[in-house]
Design brief:
The chain has 148 residues and is of the alpha+beta class. It has a single domain, classed as Sufe protein. Chain: A, CATH 3.90.1010.10. Helix content is 46%, strand content 18%. It has a three-stranded antiparallel sheet with strand order 1-2-3, covered by helices on one side. A hairpin with a 4-residue loop joins strand 1 and strand 2. Helix 2 crosses helix 3. The chain binds zinc ion (ZN). Residues 37, 40, 42, 64-65, 67-68, 127 line the site of zinc ion (ZN).
């Protein structure tokens, strides 16, 4: 059991929780998306600026457990610089990873790879997935608003 918990709270995850990168709001964000995971009490709001079809900047604000906040920090970092299509591929890769599938090797997960151990804890998968579920909804709304 202790070994399993080690896997859940890997050092890179704790680092992101203690010193989140990309936290804060983003005035003028093109995408603002928020969501909650009532099972755990996690809340997160993502702000993205879009420039020329790419995520220029990504920030998040939130509160909740280590997994939800660390995942948001890692995810925001991985989103920056990605095209909207690549952002969607990253989201699909993370969903697959949580379902136990090997991620598409062409998708760079960066620190997000550290979340692989979370899938052994089904209740915590929702904590991790909050970040990409929120952003997925935000991207869908953005695309819908930009279809002429
Ligand atoms: Zn949580």
């Amino acid at each position: 059991m202790i070994e399993q918990l080690d896997e859940l709270y890997r050092e890179v995850i704790l680092d992101h929780f203690k010193n989140p990168s990309h936290s804060g709001d983003l005035p003028g964000a093109h995408i603002k998306a928020e969501g909650t995971n009532p099972l755990c009490g996690d809340e997160v709001t993502f702000y993205l600026t879009i420039d020329d079809g790419r995520v220029a900047q990504a920030r998040f604000q939130g509160k909740g457990c280590v997994i939800s906040q660390a995942a948001s920090s890692m995810f925001a970092g991985q989103l920056e610089g990605k095209t909207l299509n690549d952002a969607t591929r990253l989201i699909d890769a993370m969903k697959g990873l949580m379902q136990g599938r090997d991620p598409d090797p062409s998708v760079d997960l960066g620190d997000l790879e550290a979340l692989a151990g979370v899938r052994k804890f089904p209740v915590r998968v929702k904590c991790a997935a909050l970040s990409w579920n929120v952003v997925e909804q935000g991207l869908q709304d953005y695309r819908a608003g930009h279809r002429s």
